[in-house]
Design brief:
The structure is a homodimer. Chain A is about 40% helix and about 20% strand. Chain A is α/β, with parallel strands linked by helices and about 725 residues long.
Chain lengths: ~725, ~725
């Protein structure tokens, strides 16, 4: 962890390029800074003015009365390098470079400027944020080193007086979006610790800031806006640390789509990394994705209040005064993957005592306007939370007027202080500011968007689950060096066929189905007859990657005639469709018993390296892209979770009376293959077991084909 | 269409049960009514008071100075029947019954009260809304016949002064949700014509109101909240009329999930209807579903502005001053099924003239803060809209301050008046009221939720497409009475097997694959040998619905030995697993050539009657529930659209070099089967062709199995 305090909490700042004209960024930045109660010293540096906005200005950083902690640069791009060098020589240890005109420009000139900027920063060991950033805000220090209008002339303090706990740091590669989170979240009384926008990230990246703030102490929740991650190792280290500390990370990663990637087209030399890979990494580290600004802000609110009171599972109790609102909320819960169980009889009895004849306590609990008026939202929530069948409660409310909440002010506080389960408030009407304040003061997050409310509840439960898996089950993986050595010798060619991979797989405890390589038809017939079972023939050639396409596979061969005919056909097909292929022989393989077809493999991601892939097999699923990825190696408990992420997961449970599949055997296979990936990911481009047939419970799996593409020269 | 003006636009109203106490509904309702400039006459009717809230009160409706148009009842449930009867006798033609305590109560007493209420209404031919409703608002008449706090003491007029066109009627079965749409939409300057909450719908239902308002003239867009539809015919008539008139219907239907159904558990005798069936009906009539209040309100805003300027297709141009915001918006567009094409060179050249070096015109067009400041959002939008590659434009804006919008006020108006393409504004910051007003005045919908903005754009394009299909292609279906008669005779038993359905299907031009029913093995062998092709055997018995489960099917039988063996096995299996089955024989069937497996069928929905079903076949897809439903009969153009709704649709286009499938033949089959459904839906419970094999283009389809379950006695 690099100490970033000189940059983020400087005691003194030189504003290089500060101007009087408030219509330009050079003027606005100083104005915004001075509009807050920052206790440090601010020195305008100007080549032309002796005074800027009423402050004495200095002609150069060399002329300052002290060595400042941080220099803020808003001069034109062509002067930035010499000025940064001057700062370096003056012993200034941190710089915030707001100036645009670097790698984000069309053409190579800006990129070259940025490269030289990075060199200077390295030479003087300076902490540099930017260039092309909108700056940052440190709320505790009342420092707004930014020109963002969202923190200019605020009608409210940067931090909501009611909230001292659960602080949220925004760190974004986009200035507009980064400060938008603050703008949208502040009226909801979210306590922001920092808003940091990182711009082109010539030096410091988003996860450098995460890493620092995890230790710095004033941040409990992270809200990130990412176009890309430049350094996978920094990311992994910070993400792992955050999960261990229980400080949730909420992220928007743009560039999912080809068009989004075009828009976010990386100015820097960042590796693209597929969005599938990003999602796999996010899932692994319990990082929550938000789909839009509301979703991000609502996730932040939920974690801000309840990161230490996460729901134990996905069972929700719903309380409402509006029958329609309760039913709608129930649908939304189910669609978000939550459960809405009927409450137990004992709890219902307690609740029923408060309900009129047209109310209902089953869940949703329709308290009716009458009961809510009598006992209040908080009391109804408390009663619902008593049920052991639910882990959280969501209340359907109207916060249009503060009056009902004023009436139950004390009980709201009492319930939030004593409840062991999180209670969420959704308002179907526009909240009035006074109601927001009461709920925030007494300890409840208030949502206006129903779907982002329920997704937040689901995210809290998933985060808890992920964290528990991490803490109890993930162990540091120790490569087996002798095995690494043996296997590496076997991974000797750019393409390895099924028969060549048997020994590799067996090193990891994976036994492919019984097979034998043959060179002529008589050998093949002899083997098939000795086995007394139907066989498959597969031509083995590093030049034939898609065997079916050229007719290089024959299945279900039983009698001698069929076998002879099939063998001849295979050889003919290869001669015709792949005449130049180097054929190693024909693999005779025992036909596998029936089961569910799965694809398992290893894929290399440009940014994150080797990832394990598991998907349902078959052509339908290829269309539907039903697969999931995971970093490697994989613990058994994570492998189970990974399989649960398949949309067609229920197929493995047995459909229409079909037997359930051998999930433990599949998990073993995934764990084993993930170890292969961990030990040899550096040379594997692709490794595919396709298909793997998962048999019924207790019967294991059959690995029926294998292919590897490696980064090795022959 | 029933004239509802006496109810919705009465010239005079008796408020029966009006009280002075403003803490109770009886007092609040009168107070809310009198808080608006309603020009009609209001007569409090009270048994105990001579004056209520300063108005002279009457002891009974019989004592009123005139025969009022409408009676509003807020007296306790036990008095409602006699009072309604008195109103009827007094010649009052409309009643709004706010009183609760009817069918929504636990127990049978309330339901019985409601039944009798309906009788009285019928006897006097009265228009009755309710009971258990929160009332309604008619904004043009400034009539708020409701106790809803959302229209009490408003700081703004009911109708936004800037908007006279594109009025939105809310009609909801839930009072809380109905008025919530108003509460959330009014600050966005949405012009509401009516907010009507229908309560228990003892008499008038949501679609009765839709039907009336379609003709009444002050409504252009409908926003509905439904727990259920009680009368399918009313729904179909109104929905069809709305689509023909181009007045969009936006709906929330709750009770998707089992839990949601439990919550919405129908008080009345409404048929449940499956959510799948609701969705099919909605799709057929171009009815748009909204997922939450924001989505509903945003759809209403989009249609309110642009129902007469719908985008021709899904190609969107994006303009932005925030690179991050533009990229995020691009992702959101793609995820909503929109396209974001690169702009053409000519348009880019025009735009580039305004951009600094760090802007980009490809799409998203990153105008940069600098260009936006110079030419304004509206001008950039206009330039983007010039491209023939886009059908709509979405601008990523900050509306935190009104100042930039004030500067371009005139051009905003000019562009909205001259643009032939809809332009949408998304604000990533919290909008200020002044900016909302300027945009609303000058003709732009403003969104704060990115996802509901892009879903609204997609919904507009889909609505236009659906409407064009309706107007150009849907014809009234005329049943063929002679055919109906012939086929009805063939549908004679509760279960009909494949061999019994051949003649039925051929009446609709559907030719099942060649088959012959046999009674013994020799016949079967003889047929197979005569065909010189592999065959399948299928036991035909109305008692064996799932043939595979009892081993009553054998496939791919080629030589005489295999055929003999298979026949014997089938008979054995049936003897063992279905000993009491009445076996009609064994069907010998030619094996179909290969292709994509599809399931096609007819299902009966409790509420909507027969629906056509099409889904991808195979076990994976069963897990993934990839099927769609449609009302019948189905036009060819709708059948194509229906197939496009399958998630695995691309499978039919040919994957990895596989040939494309014969979609026209599949469409023919769907249309034909839909006519069977239309003509015999009254007796069909289920009719399944499973599988149908779709061959490659030009090769048609093979119907490989058929089964019918009918509502007939033997």
């Amino acid at each position: 962890m690099t100490d970033l305090s000189a940059l983020l909490a400087p005691r003194s700042i030189a504003v290089i390029g500060a101007a009087n004209d408030l219509s330009i960024i050079r003027g606005r930045t100083l104005k915004v800074m001075r509009g807050h109660a920052y206790a440090g010293r601010i020195y305008p540096v100007s080549r032309s003015q002796a005074e800027v906005q009423g402050l004495k200005a200095y002609s150069s950083v060399d002329a300052l009365p002290e060595r400042v902690d941080m220099a803020l640069l808003i001069i034109p791009a062509e002067f930035v390098l010499e000025e940064l060098e001057r700062c370096g020589r003056a012993g200034i240890k941190a710089a915030l470079i707001i100036t645009s005109g670097f790698a984000e420009q069309r053409g190579s000139e800006g990129a070259e400027l940025q490269r030289r900027l990075r060199e200077i920063a390295a030479r003087f060991d300076m902490l540099v944020c930017g260039p092309n950033t909108e700056g940052f805000t440190n709320t505790a220090a009342a420092l707004c080193a930014t020109f963002s209008p969202t923190v200019d002339g605020l009608a409210v303090p940067l931090l909501p007086p009611a909230r001292t706990d659960g602080r949220v740091a925004v760190i974004g590669q986009s200035g507009g979006m980064g400060f938008a989170f603050f703008d949208r979240g502040r009226p909801k009384d979210i306590p922001f610790s920092y808003i940091i926008t990182t711009g082109n990230e010539a030096c410091l990246e988003v996860f450098d800031f995460v890493d620092y703030l995890l230790d710095e102490g004033s941040t409990d929740v992270f809200l990130l806006f990412l176009e890309n991650i430049k350094n996978a190792e920094t990311f992994k280290r910070a993400a792992d640390k955050a999960l261990r500390l229980g400080k949730p990370i909420i992220v928007t990663k743009i560039g999912h789509s080809e068009v989004g990637q075009r828009a976010a087209a990386s100015h820097t030399a960042a590796l693209a990394g597929s969005y599938d890979a990003y999602r796999a990494m996010f899932r692994h580290y319990g990082i929550v994705e938000g789909a839009d600004i509301e979703a991000m802000v609502d996730l932040a609110a939920a974690f801000s209040f309840y990161r230490q009171r996460l729901p134990a599972s996905k069972r929700v109790g719903i309380g409402t005064a509006s029958g329609g609102g309760g039913g709608w909320m129930a649908d939304a819960c189910i669609e978000a993957g939550l459960e809405v169980p009927t409450l137990d009889d004992a709890t219902r009895k307690v609740i029923d005592a408060h309900l009129p004849a047209y109310g209902t306590s089953q869940n949703p609990v329709d308290g009716t306007a009458q009961a809510i008026r009598q006992i209040g939202y908080s009391e109804l929530a408390r009663l619902i939370a008593l049920s052991e069948r639910v882990d959280s409660v969501v209340m359907v409310t109207s916060t249009r007027s503060a009056e009902p909440f004023e009436r139950e002010h004390e009980n709201l506080r009492r319930v939030s202080q004593t409840s062991t389960k999180p209670i969420f408030m959704w308002s179907y009407t526009n909240p009035c500011a006074a109601a927001v304040r009461i709920l925030s003061e007494t300890g409840y997050p208030l949502f206006t968007n129903m779907n982002s409310c329920v997704r937040a509840i689901a995210a809290l439960a998933e985060y808890r689950n992920c964290r528990e898996r991490l803490i109890s089950h993930r162990q540091t993986f120790q490569p087996d060096t002798a095995r690494v050595h043996r296997v590496r010798r076997a991974l000797h060619a750019p393409v390895l066929c099924e028969y060549q991979l048997a020994s590799v797989l067996s090193e990891y405890g994976i036994a492919p189905i019984e097979s034998q390589l043959t060179k002529n038809v008589d050998e093949a017939v002899a083997i098939a007859q000795a086995w007394r079972a139907p066989v498959a023939f597969k031509v083995q050639s590093p030049d034939i990657l898609h065997k079916t396409d050229v007719g290089a596979v024959a299945l279900n061969l039983a009698d001698s005639d069929t076998i002879h005919r099939a063998y001849a056909e295979l050889i003919d097909n290869v001669k015709q469709y792949a005449p130049s292929a180097n054929v190693h022989g024909v693999l005779v393989q025992r036909m596998a018993p029936s089961g569910i077809e799965i694809i398992v493999g290893i894929r290399r991601d440009e940014l994150f390296g080797p990832l394990l892939m598991v998907g349902l097999g078959g052509v339908y699923v290829e269309t539907l892209r039903d697969f999931v990825l995971s970093p490697v190696p994989l613990a058994a408990v994570d492998a189970g979770q990974l399989i649960d992420g398949l949309r067609g997961r229920s197929l493995l449970d047995g459909l229409r009376g079909a037997p359930a599949s051998d999930i433990p055997a599949l998990i073993d296979l995934l764990v084993s293959l993930s170890e292969l990936a961990a030990e040899h990911g550096d040379v594997i481009d692709e490794f595919e077991l396709n298909p793997v047939i998962v048999h019924e419970a207790g019967q294991g799996v059959s690995v029926v084909d294998a292919l590897a593409m490696l980064r090795v020269s022959e």
